[in-house]
Write a structure and sequence with these properties.
With 125 residues, the chain is mostly helical. The protein has helices at residues 2-13, 17-21, 24-49, 54-83, 98-103, 111-119. α3 (24-49) packs antiparallel against α4 (54-83). Bound molecules: zinc ion.
């Protein structure tokens, strides 16, 4: 995927203070790029695969959905890295704890915001 290489080079050349301030971002960037590749490859395999029993098709749809979401989240995280906003909560703008980023590098929300989203999903009432 040439797009990740473009983003990658941009992030390296960029004098992004976010990347400089957090040495672990470099490591997370590598993990993001790896899982981006894994998920795009899986997505390709799932969508090209076709055929199979009807109940397998149902499972495949769920996997395709999950992979699509993962790819979208990872792409957003890579974009934030390139822009130097990586590690900031998309909801409240506060820094996301490193433990959360380590657990899931494509995390978009900080702990409290994730908890709030889980407790009160949009449109649940
Ligand atoms: Zn937040």
């Amino acid at each position: 995927m040439p797009i990740t290489h473009g983003i990658n080079r941009h992030a390296r050349d960029d004098r992004s203070t976010a990347l400089r301030g957090h040495p672990e971002h470099e490591r997370l960037l590598q993990r993001l790029e790896t899982s981006y590749e894994v998920h795009t490859r899986q997505l390709a395999r799932l969508t090209i695969g076709g055929g199979g029993a009807p109940d397998e098709a149902d499972t495949r749809d769920h996997l395709v959905d999950a992979s699509r979401r993962a790819v979208a989240d990872i792409a957003a995280a890579l974009r934030h890295m390139a822009e130097g906003n990586y590690g900031r909560c998309e909801r409240c703008g506060k820094p996301i704890p490193v433990e959360l980023l380590e657990a899931r590098p494509e995390t978009r929300d900080c702990g409290p915001c994730q908890g709030a989203a889980l407790a009160d999903p949009p449109g649940s009432t």
